[in-house]
Specification:
By secondary structure, the protein is an all-alpha fold. About 55% of the residues lie in helices and about 0% in strands.
Length: about 60
């Protein structure tokens, strides 16, 4: 076989192993656990006065 072909095959195997490691790491560290939460969180209005966390408390009076 040609030396260039051996080099390219070895390089592609290393890239394949790196990609597989990245995918398994992402699955193991729960990167795909909540795919819709961040997309919906952008649309939520955090400064809505009707939210219980944003209401003024009357306990200080």
């Amino acid at each position: 076989m040609n030396a260039t072909l051996v080099f390219l095959l070895g390089l592609s195997v290393m890239f394949l192993m790196l990609i597989a490691f990245g995918i398994f790491w992402a699955i193991k560290s729960n990167q795909f656990e909540d795919m819709e939460g961040p997309a919906q969180r952008i649309l939520m209005d955090d400064d809505d006065p009707m939210l219980p966390s944003n209401q003024l408390s009357d306990k200080g009076k």
